[in-house]
Amino acid sequence: MTESIVDLRSDTVTRPTRAMLQAMIAAEVGDDVLGDDPTVLALEAKVAALLGKPAACFVPSGTMANQTAIRAQTEPGDEIIAHGDSHIAHYETGAPAALSGCGIYPLTGVGGRFTARDVAAAIRPRRTWMAPSRLLVIENTHNRGGGTVWPLSLFAEVCAEAHRHGLAIHLDGARLFNACVATGETPTAYTSHVETVAVCFSKALGAPAGSAVAGSVETIDRVRRFRKMFGGAMRQSGILAAAAIHALDHHLERLADDHRRARRLAEGVSEETSGFTIDLDSVQSNMVYIEVDERIGSADTVCLMLAERGVRMAPMDRQRLRAVTHLDVDDAGIERAIDVVRTCFSTARSPS
Ligand SMILES: *Cc1c(COP(=O)(O)O)cnc(C)c1O
């Protein structure tokens, strides 16, 4: 009998649960481009309320959520201020430049965070020869930072500084609900400081696809226009919206289990192994980033070794790999992953 694979590459790998599929089958649908898909409208109203904004727009992916929000709030030549390690800089194929004509002024800082002073220093004086600093993008939780969480006080300070300089703020909240579960803050505690926010249903929440952008009525009207322009307006998308509604109703509270399992994994992998370094302080939500020592190989080769034994992790950089906990990994899966890592890289067998 083969044991099932423990897939920790990302929280995007989840399959819809039976109950979620039933909700999708039962969804009443219309034509969302014509504006009459009742399930999409219900999801948008629910998300707007949850995030404390007047309007929301359902989009196919987190990338489209970020990019429509950026396009709606900038014009070509504007500059976006964001952490250099942010998702929009690394994983959206250059879209801010390609789709909105915007450059990114990259900030640095531990865990994908930065300070009000960093923002102030990045804002360009208004001169005819300078790119106008227009939009600040903050990511919470921060993916490449380690699934790190913005403390609300720092978040609020940074936002106040950006607003003082006339910038709009977009929150890349692909995993905002993880941040809320980690801090005990409500979503609106964060979103009340920003103009627009993107959330993903296909990450930790376990839906097969879909994200949303929330903001003012005028901004979301523009988001809706650019969603169409970017090819993301869908028709009977109530089927997908039903999955997102189901995820919001049933998969929010369980995020705490993912966080607990990520911590267990981080601690388990740190003990009795050699060649792995984990900054335990950075394990704040459902992600574990692992630095692998060159002596045991590259992140690619380590991931291949683990995969041969039924545990999948994702290489992120040459010597850095990532494990993410989610709906489809239980306690037993985490213990298996720890066992496999210990078997491959136990202290006893490592070269000295
Ligand atoms: C996954 C992710 C996105 C969006 O990704 P898609 O794959 O396009 O859904 C955006 N921001 C962050 C921080 C993410 O982790």
Please list the strands of the largest sheet in the order they lie side by side: 2-8-7-6-5-3-4
Q: End-to-end span in angstroms?
A: 37 Å
Rounded average pLDDT: 96
Q: If helices are DSSP runs of H or I spanning 4 or more residues, what is the number of helices?
A: 14
Structural class: alpha/beta
Seen as an oligomer or otherwise, the chain set is: single chain
Describe this structure in words.
With 352 residues, the chain is of the alpha/beta class. The protein has 14 helices and 13 strands. The strands form three sheets. A seven-stranded mixed β-sheet has the order 2-8-7-6-5-3-4, sandwiched between helices. Strand 5, helix 7 (152-164) and strand 6 form a beta-alpha-beta unit. Helix 1 crosses helix 11 (238-250), helix 3 crosses helix 10 (217-229) and helix 6 runs parallel beside helix 7 (152-164). The longest helix has 16 residues, at 255-270. It starts with 5 loop residues before the first strand and ends in a 7-residue tail after the last helix. It binds pyridoxal-5'-phosphate. Pyridoxal-5'-phosphate is lined by residues 61-63, 66, 87, 139, 143, 172, 174, 200, 202-203, 211.
Write the layout of secondary structure elements.
Layout: E1 6-7, H1 18-26, H2 38-51, E2 55-59, H3 62-72, E3 79-83, H4 87-90, H5 95-100, E4 103-107, H6 116-122, E5 133-139, H7 152-164, E6 168-173, H8 176-183, H9 187-191, E7 196-200, E8 211-215, H10 217-229, H11 238-250, H12 255-270, E9 276-277, E10 287-292, H13 299-308, E11 311-312, E12 314-317, E13 320-324, H14 331-345
Parallel strand pairs: 1-11, 3-4, 3-5, 5-6, 6-7
Antiparallel strand pairs: 2-8, 7-8, 9-10, 10-13, 12-13
Helix pairs in contact: 1-11, 2-11, 3-10, 6-7, 12-14
The structure holds pyridoxal-5'-phosphate (PLP).
